[in-house]
Every structure is written in structure tokens, then in C-alpha cells.
Write a structure and sequence with these properties.
Distance between the termini of chain B: 38 Å
Mean pLDDT of chain A: 90
Largest sheet of chain A: none
Helix content of chain A: over 70%
CATH class of chain B: Alpha Beta
Low-confidence stretches of chain A: none
Oligomer: heterodimer
Structural class of chain A: mainly alpha
Radius of gyration of chain A: 16 Å
Distance between the termini of chain A: 28 Å
CATH superfamily of chain B: NADH Oxidase
Order of helices and strands of chain A: HHHHHHH
Number of strands of chain A: 0
CATH architecture of chain B: 3-Layer(aba) Sandwich
Chain lengths: ~110, ~180
């Protein structure tokens, strides 16, 4: 499973380039773009690995991760934006519990 | 009131989803020719346009452009010729340099739309990375991308509106009333 999950070098370099250049552009851009860029990076990583992951992880990548529009920003509706992010984070947290078998480990 | 120019202005939209189909070289050249007719402060022509259609170069530019959601079939990089600007005694942040980027951009966007092409501007890129990818000479700074292609039938939602905008909400006729300036 682990070997099949590794990104190709091209894919990894593409993601590294996005993250590094986003760090630079964010210095000059609106603060709310910080969340947008991180979600874009998460979305691109999700697209790169979606075909290679378990059905449960794929459901997270193609479901909750796709629910927030790619150009959504905080200022349009701050409360709704935070609620959407909290919803996504909650789904991620729940997936972590299941994926890593935390419930099987007991309290 | 309407006419073909006003209709083009009113119907142009940012295309954030493109089909991947290449654009004809002739249409691409028409967009570039249009930029030549954009207003230029003092008619100094301090801008240069880099026209790109090579798929690998387009791919690498997208990698260093966090603000590029679309996958363009072509890009025009609008650059400021800083060495030439300096020869006119212009400061590096002189507003005319950037105003002229905007006038060239809008002229190309309208030209593209009139030719049936989808287009959009992107400024969220690393200038250093773009300069390296394009092997740009010293003194030329990339300022804006015009992304071109064929618009996909379905477009993702754009940036949300922040209040209703009309020409009237954007316009102040004549002088401001005394109360608004204290």
C-alpha cells in the first residue's frame, strides 16, 4: 500500500512548486487568500492520489474536500466560511480516527 | 444603447475552466496585435509581451502560479521593461507602469472575447520563478498573465459578489457634498 501511495516525482515537484510560490505570493496578497491557497494545495494533492487510495479516503477527497468552492473566501460570508471549514475539518478528523484505527484501540 | 463594442464589453467574463483545445495561431496573433493599440503613458511603450503556446512551458508556469486555476492553451506574459523605464527617469513603482499593464490586459481580454476565446488574468505567481522558467533577461519583470483558451461549457463559481455593484454605485457625479468630506 505504502509503495503505491508515493507520488511520482513530477507530481511531487509540482506540489512543492505550488506551495513554495504560494508562500511568496501570499506576502503581497490579501490575508484571506492564505486559506484559499492551502485548500487549493489540498485539493490538488487529493486529485493526484484519489485513484490510489482506499475507498474511504477517496470518499473524503471527492466528498467533503470538494464541498468548498475553489474560489471561496472568508469576507463574502465569514460565518458560513468558518462553518464550512469546520465541517471539512470535522470530516478529516473523523476519517483519521477510522483510517488509523483509533476506535479499535479502545479508550 | 448598444453596439458591437459595448456588447463585447458587457458579455466578457473570466473563463476559469478551459477545454484544453489549442487556439489557432492566427487568433493568438490577433490578440497580441490588439495589445499594440492599448494606451501607453507618454507613448513610451515600456511593456513587452511574451507569447507562450508550448505545452511544457505552460505546465511549468502553472506550477509556479498559485492563482492559476485554469489550464490555458496559451499565455501572454505582460512584462515591464524596467531598463527602458529607468532610461526615462521613471521610478520602479511609478503608477504609469502598472496602469499600462492594465490597459494592455483589458485590450487583450476584449480582443480575445471578440474572437470567441475564453480568457482571464492572473497575477498570483512568483516573479522569480517565472523569470527562471522563461529565461528572462535582466531588467524585464513579469507582471501579469493573460490566460487564453476555449471556455468550457460549465464554469466554476467565480469570486462571490460583495454587495450589489452597478455603474451608479461606482460613480460620483461632480464634486462630493460638503458633509462627506467633513
Amino acid at each position: 500500500m505504502a509503495a503505491r501511495m508515493v507520488l511520482s516525482e513530477d507530481e511531487a515537484v509540482e506540489l512543492v512548486a505550488f506551495l513554495v510560490t504560494a508562500a511568496r505570493t501570499q506576502v503581497d496578497e490579501a490575508a484571506e487568500y492564505g486559506s484559499l491557497r492551502l485548500l487549493t494545495a489540498a485539493g490538488r494533492l487529493g486529485e493526484l492520489i484519489a485513484e490510489r487510495v482506499s475507498p474511504e479516503t477517496r470518499a473524503l477527497l471527492t466528498g467533503p474536500l470538494k464541498q468548498i468552492p475553489e474560489l471561496a473566501v472568508r469576507t463574502a460570508d465569514p460565518a458560513a466560511y468558518v462553518a464550512a471549514l469546520d465541517g471539512l475539518c470535522g470530516a478529516v478528523g473523523q476519517h483519521l480516527v477510522t483510517h488509523f484505527g483509533l476506535e479499535r484501540k479502545g479508550p | 444603447m448598444t453596439n458591437p463594442v459595448l456588447e463585447t464589453i458587457r458579455t466578457r467574463r473570466v473563463a476559469r475552466a478551459l477545454t484544453g483545445e489549442p487556439i489557432a495561431r492566427e487568433a493568438f496573433e490577433e490578440v497580441l496585435k490588439a495589445a499594440r493599440w492599448a494606451p501607453s503613458a507618454g507613448n513610451r511603450r515600456l511593456h513587452r509581451f511574451i507569447a507562450i503556446q508550448d505545452p511544457l512551458t505552460l505546465r511549468l508556469l502553472r506550477m509556479v502560479t498559485p492563482g492559476m486555476f485554469q489550464r490555458p492553451a496559451a499565455i501572454v506574459v505582460i512584462c515591464i521593461d524596467r531598463a527602458k523605464a529607468a532610461s526615462f527617469g521613471m521610478r520602479p513603482n511609478a503608477k504609469g507602469l502598472f496602469v499600462d499593464v492594465g490597459t494592455a490586459a483589458q485590450t487583450m481580454l476584449l480582443a480575445a472575447h471578440s474572437l470567441g476565446l475564453g480568457s482571464g488574468v492572473v497575477t498570483s505567481f512568483s516573479q522569480a520563478a517565472v523569470s527562471a522558467v522563461l529565461n528572462m533577461p535582466e531588467g524585464l519583470s513579469p507582471e501579469m498573465f493573460i490566460c487564453l483558451g476555449h471556455a468550457a461549457p460549465t464554469q466554476p463559481p467565480g469570486m462571490p459578489a460583495r454587495g450589489q455593484v452597478t455603474w451608479k454605485t461606482l460613480t460620483q457625479w461632480e464634486r462630493f457634498p460638503k458633509s462627506s468630506t467633513g
